[in-house]
């Protein structure tokens, strides 16, 4: 059985912290956008339906991009 003596880390572990920070930042920005949309829908009820349609479209596009990105990685 051979052992790794040079002490190198797997290439994926180098960017783990960066990925976590980017994920958390994306989550915060998404929550801010969702909060702004809810506030806007409460203040201006006429905008509630267009905001709902926009949210559905953005959600569908995000899902499509995720599926394509996952297919490309494989």
Describe this structure in words.
The model has no long low-confidence stretch (mean pLDDT 81). The protein starts with 15 loop residues before the first helix and ends with a helix. The chain has helices at residues 16-43, 48-73. The chain is built from two helices and no strands. With 74 residues, it is mostly helical. 73% of the residues lie in helices and 0% in strands. The radius of gyration is 20 Å and the shape is elongated.
Please outline the helices and strands.
Layout: H1 16-43, H2 48-73
Number of DSSP strand runs = 0
Contiguous helical run count? 2
| Estimated helix fraction | over 70%
Sketch the topology as an H/E string, one letter per element.
HH
Question: End-to-end distance, in Å?
Answer: 31 Å
Radius of gyration based on Cα positions: 20 Å
Largest sheet: none
Please sum up the structure shown.
With 74 residues, this protein is mainly alpha-helical. It has helices spanning 16-43, 48-73.
Key structural traits:
single chain, 74 residues, mainly alpha, 2 helices
